[in-house]
Design a protein that fits this description.
Elements: H1 2-9, E1 14-16, H2 18-24, E2 33-37, H3 46-59, E3 65-69, H4 91-108, E4 114-118, H5 120-123, H6 128-135, H7 140-143, H8 147-154, H9 161-177, E5 181-185, H10 189-201, E6 208-212, H11 238-246, H12 253-259, H13 265-274, H14 278-293, H15 296-311, E7 321-326, E8 330-332, H16 333-339, H17 346-354, E9 358-360, E10 363-364, E11 371-373, E12 377-382, E13 386-394
Parallel strand pairs: 2-3, 2-5, 3-4, 5-6, 7-13
Antiparallel strand pairs: 1-6, 8-11, 9-10, 9-12, 12-13
Helix pairs in contact: 9-10, 11-14, 11-15, 14-15
Length: about 400
């Protein structure tokens, strides 16, 4: 039991509660394990994969996963972590996105151990009277405890009434399934806790919550998200995925190693004391993630290709080195590009970042706040034709 518990806790940032979770594991083959996905985008990224990885752990123990496709709630849009009202998404687009989702889902999970539910199958038939009764189970004061709602409320930012409805509907999904366990991102904590409250009011046993950490995106700042263009898609080809992982800031390596369950925090800290070359550590990270999503053979080929093309490639010594004088210790990439007339405006800069046409030392840069440091020489590749070296010198 201890070994099973350790496997299921790996890569998890919080469980509510451990005691109840251990009790449920005694009846693991009969559990209702719920996870919900709103198909508001047409891709799933590595942040989503952390949840699928945990679902797979449960399946390997013989558990069946109940997946709720929020085709009804997606039209509202989950306000978790949002500072503004989400844009409306059409039913047609939701269905199109789900068709792509299903391909990802069954590439990772065993189809024989998955039950799919669409929450429109019950919410489309809820009467207005039933809806009012459901809404009466949750107070406005309770909803304003949510950090994102609280920030928007105190900042006098607009909160639409329908946004308050979303956590209520997500909570009611758990009641209808009589869920034993719900798995979701830590950013969903309020919604998941509300589901426990609803279950109690419907005289059900409260579900155990297993919360997965949020993965920081390629910019090194924000949550991985398609809307922020800082994501690595699950269906990225193996080599492109390898390259994108190699482009993450060094400060994210610990997060990725730990969140994907390759090392504990202690193990990583010990490894960092022994490692001499951070590049080798990042190569190992990219190899491990690509192996997880594809296989070791593909990861090995991608690693070899990366090393041959980037690490082993000799930069032409005749490439011009241009001095860039600065007053401070650092300078933004934007300022450098503007100085050398590579861009004409901030929007032009963002466009090139989105097109992945800017590389520093052969690594694609996606972070608009990327900074260059004093006393370093950088190889800058701008598009396919502009290649030069910049030496940063103190004025």
């Amino acid at each position: 039991m201890t070994k099973i518990y350790d496997i299921l806790k790996s890569g998890v940032c919080e469980v509510i509660s451990d005691r109840d979770f251990i009790k449920l594991l005694l009846h693991k083959n009969n559990l209702v394990i719920k996870v919900g996905f709103d198909p508001t985008a047409d891709i799933l990224h590595l942040g989503h994969y952390l949840i699928f990885k945990k679902l797979k752990d449960f399946q390997l123990l013989g558990c069946t996963i109940s997946i709720i496709i929020g085709d009804f709630t997606a039209a509202i849009g989950d306000p978790s972590g949002k500072t503004n009202v989400r844009k409306h998404i059409s039913k047609v687009k939701i269905i199109e996105n789900y068709k792509k989702y299903s391909g990802y889902i069954f590439n990772i999970l065993d189809k024989n151990l998955v039950k799919i539910y669409f929450n429109s199958s019950w919410f489309d038939f809820v009467s207005f009277k039933e809806f009012i009764e459901l809404a009466s189970l949750c107070s406005v004061a309770k909803l304003l405890e949510r950090s994102d709602f609280k920030i928007r409320y105190t900042s006098n930012k607009h909160i639409s009434l329908h946004e308050f409805i979303y956590p209520v509907l997500q909570a009611y999904d758990s009641v209808l399934l009589n869920a034993d366990i719900e798995i979701g991102g830590i950013d969903q904590k309020f919604n998941l806790l509300l589901a426990r409250d609803f279950q109690k009011k419907f005289f059900q046993k409260q579900q155990v919550l297993i919360m997965i950490p949020i993965l920081t995106g390629l910019d090194g700042i924000n949550k991985m998200s398609k809307s922020l263009n800082n994501y690595i898609s699950i269906d990225e080809n193996d080599y492109d995925m390898f390259c994108k992982i190699m482009s993450i800031p060094d400060c994210l390596m610990k997060e990725y190693f730990v969140n994907f369950g390759f090392y504990t925090v202690f193990e990583y800290d010990q490894l960092l004391l022994e490692i001499e070359n951070l590049m080798n550590l990042k190569l190992d990270l990219a190899f491990k993630i690509v192996s997880l999503i594809y296989n070791k053979d593909k990861a090995d080929i991608a690693k070899g290709k990366f090393i041959n093309y980037f690490s082993m490639r000799k930069i032409d010594v005749d490439i011009e080195t241009i001095d860039f004088f600065l007053n401070d210790m650092i300078v933004s990439l934007y300022d450098v590009c503007l100085h050398f007339n590579l861009i004409v405006s901030n929007s032009d800069f963002k466009r090139h970042l989105k097109q992945k046409s800017i590389k520093i030392d052969s690594i694609v840069i996606c972070d608009k706040n990327f900074e260059l440091k004093l006393n370093n020489i950088y190889l800058i590749q701008f598009g396919k034709k502009k290649v030069f070296k910049v030496r940063l010198i103190k004025k």
